[in-house]
Records
---
Amino acid sequence: MYNKLDGFGPQPDILEVFGRALEGGAITAKEKELWNFVLSAYGTGEFSTKQLERDFGNAAYATIRGFVMKFADLGLLNTHRYGNRIKYSIGRVQK
């Protein structure tokens, strides 16, 4: 799953934050599926909500939108603005 991360792998703190949120019940089963998909499909690359919706294929746009917003708030996803377009990438949580 992590092999598309260009050899860098997710930062340990990202996995710690994800693990704590998962254990605390803050992350749903569908969000866990989406997170694993993002790690394996996009690695360190950027993606849009529409692209994730199309590629994942098993979630409504509202679910995708809620996922990226929540994970951006948790620091697990970075937000990149290009005019009126937004793309996301794996975040770098800072301690």
Note: The helical segments are 12-23, 29-42, 49-56, 61-74.
---
Amino acid sequence: MLVTLVFVAHLALIFAFGERKPPAPRTVTNVPELKLATSSAEWLALNDPTLFAQPNLAGFTGPAWLQPPHVEFHRQEWTEQPRWLELPAAELGNTFSQFMQTNRFVNFQFELKPPVKFIAPVALVEPDLAKTSTLRIEGDLTQRRLLTPISLQSWPNDDVLEPSTVQALVDAKGNVISVVLLSSSGLDVANQRALELVRAARFEPSPDLTIGRFIFDWHTVALPVTNTPAGS
């Protein structure tokens, strides 16, 4: 019942105050009016955005730019006779003579023959041949110290022997576990001796496997004479 009473009260208030008449408009006086120009073109020219940027007859630069004054050309008549420049024949070489007097030239001599170049003879000093066989170690094995001494011998041969190159693989304990003959000296006995020496070599211990090359430069001696030639 309370809700119904409140609803009825709201409806009564709506009907009581809801009917309102719109206010009557008041008459407006003294208001600015906009009129289009009819007879005067100057008012229309004011809408041009380039009125003051470009020459225009209606602007202040119109008479100066668009209406240049007329300039009359007056021809000038030359009445004086031409006067030719005189050529002084006696002074024609004076400028060149002054130039030659103020400039001195150094004497130049032509050398028809080039100078002699002395060349001293170059004396080629060849190193002495090795008196004994030598051994060189290359590769990573140079970082490890060789513990066993290697004694080399000379080989009797009439010709010079090529180096015997042996590749070796050394384990962590310093023992040689693999040997390979890379280049031959031309003498089988020397090659076999090189392989035996490399197998018997021992190095200081290392944590990793090491590979290197043994290069044997063999020294040769002359073969003994077995037959003595008869005297003539």
Note: The first strand starts at residue 134 and ends at 139.
---
Amino acid sequence: MINQSNGKVSFYPAVGFSGTRTTRFHADDGQFNASSNTVYLFVGSDEEAPHWSSPERSITTVYQSDYVNFSTLWTDNSELKSFIFSIDRGSGWLNYSETSMTGPSNTSIKRLQMVSPGGTQISWRFYGFDIAGNMNYTDIQTFTLATRPLPPSPALPPSQRGLKFSKEPELLKPKKGIKNFTVSPSFIRVLLKQGETKTRILQILNPR
């Protein structure tokens, strides 16, 4: 079939045909005519799987809750069809839905959030398919989720620098010469954060 707009010729073999055919093109303008050279057409089955390269992730150091783009380049001798992304986040392999991919070259991309805790080893790979049903897959890629560093402790205000605090408060003892003097509770222990206040009731009894 000749496309009248661009002059390109397309050939469509019968379903299941495999072999060699030849053709020639003839042109005639009503006054002159000419013939082309012989063109050989080879039709066979496609048994070559897609080729992959450059598997990458968008972040080098990945922490828990980070979003990561995984990608791989694909090429095919005919036409790509689709890809599947597979990942193991510490609890077994999970395959995501098949995603379309066209042309003789393309890039498979999958974006995911890392929900595993820090220290978990992550494994991932892509599967690629062409229109003839051939399949290939990348090598397994791995990395370990990093653990986020703890924030530094807040600095003490100047008024509290250099102060020493005892591990346990000393019991309140009545002074000598004072009788029937009681304090309840006998000691008070309160944990406070900077800027926080708390109230405790202290009962002092002296019947005399």
Note: DSSP finds no helices and 15 strands in the chain.
---
Amino acid sequence: MQKPIHVFNRYSGAIEEEEIYGEAFLKWIYGHPLGRLALWGVAKRRFFSRFYGWRMSRPASRKKVAPFVATYGLNEEEFLQAKESFGSFNAFFSRRLRPDARPIASAPSDVVFPADGRHLAIPVLGREEGFFVKGQRFDLAKLLDDAELAHEFAGGTLVLSRLCPVDYHRFHFPVEGRPERAMRIGGPLFSVSPIALRQRLSYLWENARVRVVLDGGPAGKVVTVDVGATCVGSIHYTYTPGEDIARGDEKGFFEFGGSSTITLFKQGVVCLADDLLSHSAKNQEVYARMGDRMGRLVSC
């Protein structure tokens, strides 16, 4: 029996039970013997996600937009364009918001959340016993696909930002600096919902993912990893490698599906926000929006 997913909402100050898009399917495929056969035979395969992404890019899919907005209570005043103007569900899914919809925390030392979502932190890598489930440990070398880079970030700080299908699906830079070219790492496409990660944390470093190294800013070298997942049509990047970016600048977007982005800081670079620290210590995610304060740059 899968436990409900409870999240601390930074804005309401309350613990809320998450309404999971596709919950019945996820519980079946990750919790039932027949579902697991389907997972390994079909759902984790790229063709399954590509087919679903193709369907969501067809003009016929636009009829899903209005019911989706109504069902999940999305704030249309944030949209840069009217919901009726999108040519497909995927066009709506990767929508831009009005410039004032996500103000960026402005103190010089601020570090911001890179995406709308549910965030969970490992303040010190190597001390993450119980991350999602007791006994699971984070394999940084496999996540980064680079043992030398993993060594640089040993003992550092990690923040996992999980996006659900109902979220704004563009992701941004948490600090200023100069980003390198995106490095794609191949793999299958398992779900990254807690329903799946409670069983197997390694989906995060088994899945197809994209690594971007950012340097040249006050945070020094920072690594982000954008993780693909079941039914994610694809990951697109909108930044220019080698050009300076500001904190909160757009980095890219996911097409249809829920996914995750990971932010890594070196040891002693960042102090995380109190609510993120306290709830992560209880293995409970914090809901916060892109641009809000994740923490501050300082020796902890």
Note: Residues 46-57 form the longest helix (12 residues).
